Amino acid sequence: MSLKSYEGVLMQFPEYRALKNLMLYVPPVLIVLGTFGNVFSFIIMRRRAMLKVSSYHYLASLAVADSLVLYIGLLRLWLGEVTGSDFHNSADWICKLTISLGYTASDLSVWLIIAVTVERYIVVCFPLRASAMINTNRAKKVIGFLVLLMFTINLHFFWTVEIVERQPVDGNNVSNCEAAPHHQQLVNAVWPWVDACIYSFVPFIVILVLNILIVIEVIEARAHRLRMQSTSEHHYHRQASRFRGTAGSSFSLHNVDIGSCRRACGPGEGMKLTIMLLTVSFAFLLTTLPMNISLIVTAFWDHSNNDLRRVVQFKLANTVAELLMYLNHSMNFCLYCATGQKFRQQIVHLLRCRRDNYSAWNSLHTDDTKCTSSLKNGIHSVKLLVHQAPELVINHNGEIVLPSATKL
């Protein structure tokens, strides 16, 4: 843990010591968890069976965006906490690039969640139009549009921020990546509110409203399905009681039909995907709500307040909110595993294929060794390895046979 000169006074407060410990120990856990989870999620989402569904294209892109957020944002903060220096202060181009890409990746991550939530809303609430409005090609176009849009929105950082030299402290010049002198009003006063709307306020409202509408539609559809099932069972029971003495086999057939209806009325593939995506979007709402509150409190904070303890307490609350925000970018893999049956099946299938491939390679290596040993023991005058002499063939008796003279 590295301490700056002014932090000696602040370390007397337990809240500030807790803040320093949080920033020292929590980020590496989130980075490791997020790296593993996002890489694994991307691999699974790019499998052939998953690419047939447009929603998984969004989730694959989300894994990439989340990884960028963790490495450009959280890793930078943690390294600064450990070393006492921020690497984006080292060069002007690094300053511009990290700020621009950091904002782009975080905004893109959120709007990919919005895109997949809108898609799920269409599927659930307008199922007859879904096939015409939703496909993998359109998903790719939407992803490309969002990448271009978010990069364009944050492109101004390439000329509105730069390395600024401050007054010497202890005889050393201090260089900070911050707003350029002619753009301080935009970067420090205007843009925080613009970014808050893009990243927090608008996405929060849109996702919350769409999720509520999806849940209402799912509940109503389930109630309708149960009413239909109850009506069907009542009809079958009436028919069975009417023909009980003469149509036992028919009654048995009706019972089979009822069982089939119950199985069909269970949650299908689309409903399972809906549950998984609802979990992801609700997790976003929960993990970003504290940051939204923090932004509002910061806007109305009395900056003339010189109560150091209150300032430290607010700083601790803001740090917790920020870490929760980064948690949102590192935990999607866990949510997929917990709620996505198809995702779990693909993980098992992938691991099984790797295991089978390893077993097959190991078996082939063992067979080659056995063949080599057999050749050495049976034919002392010929010392050849089978895989080194493809022009030779061994028959079922262990004899070496020359292949027929052919070019094929």
Automatic annotation (TrEMBL):
Q: Which Pfam families match?
A: 7tm_1
Q: Does the keyword Membrane apply?
A: yes
**Where do the TM regions start and end?**
22-44, 56-79, 108-130, 142-159, 198-219, 273-301
Fetch the CDD domains from UniProt.
7tmA_FMRFamide_R-like (cd14978)
Q: Which residues form a coiled coil?
A: none
Q: Which SUPFAM superfamilies match?
A: Family A G protein-coupled receptor-like
Please spell out the taxonomic lineage of the organism that makes this protein: Eukaryota, Metazoa, Spiralia, Lophotrochozoa, Mollusca
Record's family? Belongs to the G-protein coupled receptor 1 family.
Compartments, record wording: Membrane
Which residues are in the G-protein coupled receptors family 1 profile domain? 37-336
Protein name, as recorded: G-protein coupled receptors family 1 profile domain-containing protein
Would you name any one GO CC term?
membrane
Q: Which UniProt keywords apply?
A: G-protein coupled receptor, Membrane, Receptor, Transducer, Transmembrane, Transmembrane helix
Q: What is the originating organism of this protein?
A: Littorina saxatilis
An example molecular function term from Gene Ontology annotations: G protein-coupled receptor activity
